[in-house]
Write a structure and sequence with these properties.
The structure holds 2 protein chains of 2 kinds.
Chain A (H helix, E strand, L loop, with lengths): L5 H27 L7 H23 L10 H14 L1 H31 L4 H21 L1 H4 L5 E2 L17 H29 L1 H11 L1 H6 L4 H27 L1 E2 L6 H15 L4 H20 L1 H7 L5 H18 L15 H20 L1
Antiparallel strand pairs in A: 1-2
Chain B lengths: L1 H11 L6 H17 L7 H28 L3 H30 L14 E2 L2 E2 H23 L1 H11 L1 H6 L4 H26 L7 H15 L4 H26 L8 H14 L3 H4 L2 H18 L1
Antiparallel strand pairs in B: 1-2
Helix pairs in contact in B: 1-8, 1-9, 1-10, 2-3, 2-4, 2-8, 2-9, 3-8, 5-6, 6-8, 9-10, 9-11, 10-11
The chains are: A mainly alpha, B mainly alpha.
Chain lengths: 366, 297
């Protein structure tokens, strides 16, 4: 069975899911708590690079494959893949283990990155610092050879390989693999959504918004805003780290130039802002819209090449910059502005109001 | 460049992330002047100054003024300048592609050192850049202390509404500031291709050094920014070349780590930068130590 364009469609779904995890967790930091976090790519990189560096070495150790990992990375990883395609259980265990590890790495990085806040750093400086540290982080990943092979990069062991042996509904092996990736990332996405929604509806969500709107005011009410910033950064970096790991497994190959600041910081910022910050409906719609647009540009790249007098890659950048500026100028609160958070149901509030009104009118009569 | 970023932040209260890309604009203006119009290296710096200034003014009108009139927060302005940065980078790349296809010349990874002159074995770029640096600093110093515009700028930076109520034309001052904000990094960018290999995405790496200089300077006055950028620049070039002799050349791509480390140390030890240090205390203490030593001697 082959449906035209299904390859494109499945890839699109994977991108949307992975970036939804990133934007939802970013929304937690920027939209709810108001941290201008411009180092988000670092969190995704922590997950992705860790997968690339560790999972292959771990499997090589378990399978007792000798030899320097970076020198003979391609034969080692292909023998690991051959083993993984025979053993679904080991593949799933590897996937789960590395996702947990990626979350831990992301959390550790978030904790480290937000420590300056405790020293009394202003949030504006934090944005600048994170941007700079992120560039440094990527440079290490690109040039430090023992880590992930320097400029050449390394292949990542593929825990979805075993799916290629099965064929449900007549899908081709590569499509089966994509479907596996979709299921795995969907599970992560559901956890993320559940977490974010329950935070946003809880007193904690309202506290975050209060800290964003007025830090000093929240502090006078006995809340430690600085500790809260650190906590939020840690949690949201952990989610983004998992997204990075999923992306590394999906791509199957990692180089230091992956997880760059434009793709993993600026685009998520644009998605959150266009949709409307502190608002999950807006964030989801913004993400879906932008990812579809990006994939379409990439898909029709070769056709655009003839029409435009320049390389179409820059069209993506051009679009990103223009949309960011236009949104901020004309619709600063996004397509779906944030709604006030109600502690009770709307109907409940209406009922209480009615009761009050009746009570006052009856008291006036007497 | 650091002077420009500090100017933008302290006077118009805009954190400008696109400052390094303004420098790249300067690189391409001088490239166009030299390669296409056949103007010499140093005369083209004038065009860099003017062109960068014009771009600064355009950005002020199209982006900063509408945002400020709407009452945008600092975070929003930050993101807006990030968007501007990406937009400018894409435009520069498009321009480079366009030039490449119409004039059939190489527009990426170029170096313009052949156009430089040479005095007794010292490259002209060292002399000229130092001269221009001193001239810019002197002119800015004169402007801030002697002219009405400079004093008005300072007042605007202190308190926008108070300055306006004193009869300062805030609109005009902001315009002049943004002309400088665009012009200074573009001029600095004009020097860049003489010494380093340039391409449209070079600003990704300059930006770390620029912000490190600003943070070290403390985002307050032009003097601190100048000192900060001089320290960072010296540290980056000298330290790295020394380290490369010790450890080998693999360390060279990490050269901006020096700036990064200095920046982090600054943020942890004295978050307000050089400007925030208690200078009068430090000076009196060193003086007393010197006196003590002299008496002993």
């Amino acid at each position: 069975m082959s449906i035209p364009g299904i390859d494109f469609f499945l890839t699109l779904i994977i991108y949307i899911i992975i970036f939804l995890i990133v934007t939802l967790s970013y929304n937690l930091a920027y939209g709810y708590t108001g941290i201008p976090d411009f180092g988000r790519a670092m969190a995704a990189g922590a997950g992705g690079f860790l997968c690339a560096a560790l999972s292959g070495r771990l499997m090589a150790y378990i399978l007792n494959i000798q030899g320097d990992y970076i020198e003979n990375v391609i034969p080692i990883v292909s023998s690991i893949n051959a083993y993984l395609s025979e053993n679904p259980l080991v593949s799933i265990a590897l996937l789960l283990f590395s996702l947990v590890l990626a979350a831990l790495a992301g959390a550790a990085l978030g904790l480290l990155a937000s420590l300056p806040i405790l020293r009394g750093l202003r949030l504006f400086y934090l944005g600048v610092t994170l941007l700079a540290i992120q560039i440094g982080f990527n440079t290490i990943a690109l040039y430090w050879k023992p880590f992930i092979g320097g400029p050449l990069g390394v292949p990542v062991p593929d825990p979805f390989r075993w799916l290629m042996n099965y064929s449900i509904g007549g899908f081709s092996p590569s499509l089966m693999r994509l479907i596996g990736v979709i299921f795995a990332s969907m599970a992560v996405l559901i956890i993320t959504i559940y977490f974010c929604f329950s935070v946003s509806r809880s007193p904690l969500g309202r506290l975050l918004k209060a800290v964003r709107d007025d830090e000093e005011c929240a502090e006078t009410l006995g809340r430690d805003a600085r500790k809260l910033y650190v906590k939020v950064m840690t949690v949201s970096y952990a989610f983004t780290g998992v997204a990075g790991a999923l992306f590394a497994y999906y791509g199957g190959y990692v180089v230091g130039t992956h997880f760059d600041k434009v793709g993993w910081t600026f685009w998520p910022v644009a998605m959150v802002i266009l949709g409307g910050s502190a608002n999950f409906k807006g964030t989801i719609i913004g993400t879906v819209f932008f990812i579809t647009l990006r994939r379409l540009i990439l898909f029709y790249k070769s056709d655009l090449e003839f029409i435009l007098p320049f390389s179409p890659i820059w069209l993506e950048y051009l679009l990103l910059g223009t949309i960011l500026i236009l949104t901020l100028t004309y619709r600063p609160r996004g397509l779906f502005p944030e709604k006030p958070e109600l502690t009770l149901d709307k109907k409940e509030i209406q009922r209480i109001r009615e009761e009050r009104r009746e009570a006052t009118s009856s008291s006036l009569k007497t | 460049m650091a002077i420009s970023a500090t100017l933008a932040l302290s006077i118009t209260n805009v954190p400008n992330f696109a400052v390094a890309t303004f420098g790249t604009i300067g690189i391409y203006i001088s490239f166009t002047c030299i390669k296409i119009f056949g103007i010499g290296l140093y005369p083209s710096l004038i065009f860099c100054f003017l062109g960068g200034g014009c771009i600064g003014v355009i950005i002020y009108y199209l982006l900063i003024r509408p945002l400020r009139n709407r009452g945008a927060t600092r975070e929003e302005l930050m993101i807006a300048t990030l968007g501007l940065d990406v937009l400018l980078i894409s435009l520069l790349n498009i321009y480079a592609d366009y030039i490449n296809r119409t004039f059939k010349i190489r527009t990426r990874d170029f170096i313009l050192s052949v156009y430089d002159f040479n005095v007794n074995g010292i490259d002209g770029v060292f002399i000229m850049s130092t001269l221009v640096f001193i001239a810019v600093l002197a002119l800015l110093h004169l402007m801030f202390t002697k002219t009405k515009i400079g004093i008005a700028m300072k007042a605007l930076g202190e308190n926008y509404y108070l300055a306006e109520s004193q009869g300062i034309d805030a609109e005009r001052i902001c315009l002049i500031t943004w002309f400088l904000v665009g012009a200074l990094p573009a001029t600095a960018g004009g020097f860049y291709p003489v010494y380093w290999i340039s391409n449209p995405t070079v600003s990704f790496f300059i930006v770390v050094s620029v912000f490190a200089s600003c943070v070290l300077g403390g985002f307050a006055t032009i003097y601190d920014a100048a000192t900060g950028s001089y320290i960072i620049g010296l540290a980056q070039t000298l330290l790295i070349s020394h380290l490369a002799k010790i450890f080998g050349s693999w360390i060279l791509p990490y050269n901006f780590f020096v700036a990064l480390i200095i920046m982090i140390i600054t943020l942890f030890l004295f978050p307000r930068g050089l400007y925030g240090l208690p200078w009068d205390k430090i000076i009196s203490k060193t003086r007393s130590i010197l006196l003590f030593v002299r008496r002993r001697g």
